[in-house]
Specification:
It is a single chain. The protein is of the alpha/beta class. The chain folds into 4 domains: about 90 residues, no CATH class; about 100 residues, OB fold (Dihydrolipoamide Acetyltransferase, E2P); about 160 residues, P-loop containing nucleotide triphosphate hydrolases (Rossmann fold); about 160 residues, P-loop containing nucleotide triphosphate hydrolases (Rossmann fold). The chain has 26 helices and 22 strands. A 7-stranded mixed beta sheet has the order 6-7-4-3-2-5-8, with no helix packed on it. α9 packs across α10. Bound molecules: adenosine-5'-diphosphate and magnesium ion. The site of adenosine-5'-diphosphate has 17 residues, from α13. Belongs to the helicase family. RecG subfamily. Its EC number is 5.6.2.4. It comes from Arundinibacter roseus. This is ATP-dependent DNA helicase RecG.
Length: about 700
């Protein structure tokens, strides 16, 4: 390893001022183990210490002021919680008060009357005087007399504060470290990139992000470090994608007998342009002789299933088999029923495998898969089990990706040892482009961004609980017209018991309000057979209202259901609301979504509800969600590692990400292995990153 990495691997306790007492504290509280960790512990904001204010010129408008002056005298006033220490503080232009409510004995001990200090804090005007409560106060020294800096503020924990580690202690250690580090900091980006994007050199950026000479420097430092982070993030993703593409061959599917027949004779509707485009992308993948790893994004109802089916047919036309994996039994069943209609027309064999498939059936099924007489297998996780062996699996479709981990994806690969199956992952959770590039940078991405023609947009409204009677009246009318209704209750694990009670209470009150209407109830605590039974009744239109928890969230298709009422809508995230709403609007009728809430709502909740009422576009909703929540929560997947960004913010840094990605792409196209001398620095830095990650995994 290079000298550089050894230096930054130095344990933090060896830094002057930290020592063996505070070292472990920093390890535990802030995950700072090494010099490298500390130098990358970036402040989250800065305080303006670039100038001194005169007391005469203070105003309440100022968020904070820094004043150089003399502490005259103080008195302790009041009793109990009103007890306070009030000091008078003057400079050449006037005088003001400094007030402490806490740690009075300590301040009485350390402060010196008639001495010069620098104070900093938020000024308020009270009783004809300016004062600062709990100011930061330091004896005037030749150093702080100069001012001229923006002081970093770091995130801290309560425990650190109790042990007297504050932002300024960290700032001091960082400064010491920066001074020591300067000869060890190497540039990690090639010169031409620095020039092209006018990026600050690395060493300057590290200084400036902690101790910026000016706000402009801070801005440039931040931009540079974000670029670097996203550049390496993308470089690694694209590199592993190239590796995937080159490493694994894929079957070539160029025969199209049944596919053509299906297109010409049996296609139930005209495909949308977006569906055509995506099919073309898949078809091209199938000609390449490389394994396809493609993500298909499309809003609920955009028609992903037919695309998947046609892709499967292409596999079948070339003597390969196909499987489709869904996250729940209900969904697997719906896919099975839907695809079977098409399959039967074409003489294609299809079967379903789930956890509840009987042993005897399984044996038959396993046999048929192995001898190739079964063409398509639809199922749940049960598909992954080892005894499920295919004669020649050519395509695996995974529906609703966010329920499946990456590890499971690779277990599907192993279903064909000779030549890995092509993989098509379908998700109805639209992800903003910036996020998709980072989360799924190792997959090719296709998007269906268009709904089939003739769909009426769902009308969405927000109503308060107080208007329930009106809503129930509306539901009665819709049911009288022959429609069906979902009423959904939230269910989260921590409050499971109470939520279940909400649901059953709700069910009872609905039963009372709709005495003549058959009603289904569905929740996660029911046995699979009972769930299936209730769902079945609703699908067959035997029941008119489905009272349910979010188990109906994913993929369920009942075109006649045209009203969705979401109770306690404030408790759902945006993408979840959108998913739920997607259960209606599937048929020819006008559909409605009613978001029910209490009166008291936070600003963020209002934004969520307003967004839902304003648009049906999943990508637009995903953007808002990203802005509101940040990328961490949005995906529902634990794609750890990929998302560990220190400084870049995927919600805000889309432009930087694009530039970083384009640069990474260009470099890897020219030099995929990063072997040429001009890329030596990049390669060195990548190796260092890998090295410190392995070290890290040893620690944790
Ligand atoms: P999702 O993308 O949510 O999985 P589906 O594949 O379930 O959507 O399709 C939703 C409904 O739209 C289905 O009833 C399907 O038959 C229908 N559909 C799909 N594509 C078209 C199209 N091009 N024209 C008309 N209806 C379509
Ligand atoms: Mg679907």
């Amino acid at each position: 390893m290079s000298e550089r990495s050894t230096f930054f691997e130095t344990k933090i306790e060896f830094l002057k001022g930290v020592g063996p007492q505070r070292g472990p504290l920093l390890n535990k509280e802030l995950s700072i183990f090494t010099y490298g960790d500390l130098i990358q512990y970036y402040p989250f904001r800065h305080e303006d210490r670039s100038q001194f204010h005169y007391i005469q010129a203070i105003s309440e408008e100022l968020p904070a002021v820094q004043i150089k002056g003399r502490l005259k005298d103080w008195t302790v006033l009041g009793e109990g919680h009103k007890k306070r220490m009030v000091a008078s503080f003057t400079d050449s232009t006037g005088s003001m008060e400094l007030v402490w409510f806490q740690s009075i004995p300590w301040f009485e001990k350390v402060l010196r009357r008639n001495s010069e200090y620098v104070v900093y804090g938020k000024p308020i005007f009270f009783n004809g005087r300016y004062s600062i409560t709990h100011p930061e106060i330091d004896p005037l020294t030749p150093e702080n007399e100069k001012a001229g800096t923006w002081q970093p503020v770091y995130h801290l924990t309560e425990k650190l504060k109790k042990r007297f580690v504050d932002s300024r202690s960290i700032g001091r250690w960082v400064r010491t470290l920066l001074e020591l580090s300067t000869p060890h900091i190497r540039e990690t980006l090639p010169d031409w990139l620095l020039t092209k994007y006018r990026l600050m050199p690395k060493a300057d950026a590290l200084w400036s992000i902690h101790i910026p000479p000016s706000p402009a420097h801070l801005h440039q430092a931040t931009r540079r470090l974000k670029f670097e982070e996203l550049f390496y993030n993308q470089l690694r993703l694209i590199k592993s994608k190239i590796l995937l593409q080159n490493e694994f061959p894929g079957q070539i599917f160029d025969q199209t007998d049944r596919t053509t027949v299906f297109h010409e004779k049996h296609m139930p509707f005209a495909l949308t342009n977006a569906q055509h485009r995506v099919l073309q992308e898949i078809k091209e993948d199938f000609q390449k002789g490389k394994q396809m790893n493609r993500l298909l994004q499309g809003d609920v109802g955009s028609g992903k299933t037919i695309v998947a089916f046609i892709a499967m047919l292409m596999a079948l036309d070339n003597d390969a088999q196909a499987c489709l994996m869904a996250p729940t039994e209900i969904l697997a069943d719906q896919h099975f029923q839907g695809l079977k209609q098409y399959a039967d027309l074409l003489g294609v064999t299809i079967a379903k495998l789930t956890g509840s498939t009987k042993k005897k059936e399984r044996t038959v099924l396993h046999e048929a898969l192995r001898d190739g007489s079964l063409h398509i297998l639809v199922g749940t996780h049960a598909l992954i089990e080892d005894e499920v062996q295919f004669q020649n699996l050519g395509l695996c479709v995974i529906d609703e990706q966010h329920r499946f981990g990456v590890a499971q994806r690779s277990r599907l690969w192993a279903k064909n040892e000779r030549i890995h199956p092509h993989i098509l992952v379908m998700t109805a959770t639209p992800i903003p482009r910036t996020l998709a590039m980072t989360l799924y940078g190792d997959l090719d991405i296709s998007v269906i961004d268009e709904l089939p023609a003739g769909r009426k947009p769902i009308k969405t409204v927000h109503r308060y609980d107080a208007h329930r009677a009106t809503i129930f009246g509306f539901l009665k009318d819709e049911i009288a017209k022959g429609r069906q209704v979902y009423i959904v209750y939230p269910l989260i694990e921590e409050s499971e018991k109470m939520d279940l009670k909400d649901l059953t209470d709700g069910y009872e009150s609905i039963s009372r309000s709709f005495p003549d209407v058959p009603i289904s109830i569905l929740h996660g605590k029911m046995k699979p057979v009972d769930k299936e039974y209730e769902m079945g009744r609703f699908v067959k239109n035997e029941t008119k209202i489905m009272v349910a928890t979010t188990v109906i969230e994913v993929g369920v298709n009942v075109p006649n259901a045209s009203v969705m009422v979401i109770e306690n809508a404030e408790r759902f995230g945006l993408s979840q609301l959108h998913q739920l709403r997607g259960r209606v609007g599937r048929g020819a009728e006008q559909s409605f979504c009613v978001l029910m809430t209490d009166f008291k709502l936070s600003k963020e909740t209002r934004t969520r509800l307003d967004t839902m009422c304003r648009t049906n576009n999943g990508f637009e909703i995903a953007e808002v969600d990203l802005q509101l929540r940040g990328p961490g929560d949005l995906t529902g997947t634990q794609q750890s590692g990929i998302m560990d960004l220190l400084i870049a913010d995927l919600a805000k840094d889309g432009e930087i990400l694009k530039a970083a990605r384009a640069s990474a792409q260009a470099i890897l196209e020219e030099d995929p292995e990063l072997e040429t001398p001009q890329h030596a620095a990049i390669r060195g830095h990548l190796d260092n990153m890998r090295q410190s990650e392995t070290n890290w995994s040893r620690i944790s």
